[in-house]
Amino acid sequence: MMKFRWHYLLYMTGFIVLLVVLGELNNYFDSKQQATFKVFPWEIIAALSYLSIGGYLGLPLLIKEYNKTGEWRVNLQKLTLIGLPSLYLAFSWFIPTSILPAFLFHSYEELSLGGIIATGYIFTMSFTKESK
Questions:
Q1: Model-level pTM?
Q2: What percent of the chain has pLDDT over 70?
Q3: In this structure, which of 8, 23, 27, 120 has its CB flanked by the most CB atoms within 10 Å?
C-alpha cells in the first residue's frame, strides 16, 4: 500500500496561496500605477515580486541541502553566468540601451516573467552544502 505524503499536499497548497497573493499584489500595483500615473517604482516592484515563485520552486532542493552536513557555499559562477543574464533578459524592457534582437521584443512579457522566475530559482539553487 502506498503511503500518502502530506508534504506534497502542503507544498502544493503553499504554491497556490503564493500565486493568489502575488495576483492580489499585482492588482494593487496596477491600481497604484493607474492612480499615480507613475510606472517606475510599481512596475519594478511588481516584477521583482515574481522572484518568490522561482525561490519557492527551488525550496524542496534547498531543504535537502539544509539536511546535509557540511558548510554552506555560494556558487558564484552560477549566479554570474546564468543568474545575471536571465535578470538582464527579464528587465531588458526597462533598460533604454538594451541590445536584444527585435524578435525577442514581440514576447517581452513572457520573456520577462520567465527570466524573473528563473532568476529566483537560480538564486535559490546557488546555495549548496559541501563537506570538507
A1: 0.80
A2: 86
A3: 120
